[in-house]
Amino acid sequence: MKSESLRCGARMRAAIAAARALLAQLETAATDAIAIGKRIDELQAASASSEGDDERRDRKLATCSALKRKLEAMNAATLFCESERELEEITRFAKLVQKKQAYRKKAKKRQRVVAAILRAMPIERTREFVDPETIDLKTLIEIRTAWDRFIVPPRTFPGSSTIPPHFVPPPATPSAQWAVYVNATRTLTPTL
C-alpha cells in the first residue's frame, strides 16, 4: 500500500512538472502569436504585402492549439492515478487538508479576537500587582473574597460556598490547642 502511494506520488509530481512545462510553452507561443498579430496589423496599415507574417502567425496559432489539446488530453485520472479509487483517495485527502486549513484560519481569527477583547478590558483589582510589603489585612481580605467568589460562586451547586474546602472551622467550644493557634497567629500578624 505504501509503495503504491509512493509510486502514485512520483507519477503525480512528474505529471505536474510536465503540465507546468506545457503551460510555459503555451504562454510563450501565445505571447509570440499576439506579437505577430500586432506586427501584422501594423504592417497592413503600412503596406499590403504581409503574407509571410500571416503564415508565421498561423504556425504560432497551430502550435498554441496543439499545446492546448495536449493539456486537455492530460486529465487527472490518467495523470496521477491508475485507478478511480486512488483518485478518490487523493481528492478526499485534499478536501481534508482544505478543511483543516480553514479550521486553523478560523481558530487563529478567534484567538486574535479574544486577545483583542482581553486587551481592551480594564485590569481588575484582583489582577493588579500587590506589593507584599505594603499590603494590609483589609486588602488581603478583599483579594481573598474576590478569589473565593471566582473559584466557587455560592449556590452554583448544592453545598457550594466561598469558604475553601480545606478550611477547618473552630470547634463550638474552643480547646486549649485552638486558643494557642489563635494567639500564635495574632502575634505573627502585623498590626497597622
**Chain-averaged pLDDT:** 71
Major sheet, described briefly? none
Q: Work out the number of β strands.
A: 0
The share of residues in extended strands comes to: under 5%
For the CA atoms, what is the radius of gyration? 40 Å
Instruction: Tell me the domain tally.
Output: 3
Instruction: Report helical residue fraction.
Output: over 70%
H/E series: HHHHHH
Separation of the first and last Cα atoms:
78 Å
Number of helical regions: 6
Shape, principal axes of CA atoms: elongated
The stretches of 5 or more residues where confidence is low (pLDDT under 50) are: none
Structural class: mainly alpha
Keywords:
192 residues; mainly alpha; 3 domains; 6 helices; elongated
Helix and strand topology:
Elements: H1 2-46, H2 51-73, H3 76-80, H4 84-120, H5 137-151, H6 176-188
Helix pairs in contact: 1-2
